């Protein structure tokens, strides 16, 4: 793959809605007649964090969301970072450290690359595969695979 420096100045904006799935029935609510009926359980945020800048100014939030069907999605909201070659979304067990000390750590320990970054701006979703235990990862990085550097990262804290 050839490096195309002119592409670094082209923003790619993505505006995806939070995915929905068929609701499950975990709670029970009373009806007008006094009987009870299952209440659908919608998307629930189970972990979240705020991006800090590394190699490039990066802002936005990251969330792990449990959907009504029990699956999990990584949601990035209001992302604003630079575009770059071969940007990836990486879950990692590395601590999020500010400054240059945090730029290169996200592929050192346990990590999983979820996908190519869809866009350097906006809201986007990444389905977490069933065989990935998201709770084993404490951070998320917008990772430039070409230069092995984090553009920005968020510590994922359970809520």
UniProtKB/TrEMBL annotation:
DM13 domain ranges (all copies): 49-157
InterPro entries the record matches: DM13_domain (IPR019545)
Xref: Pfam families: DM13
Protein name: DM13 domain-containing protein
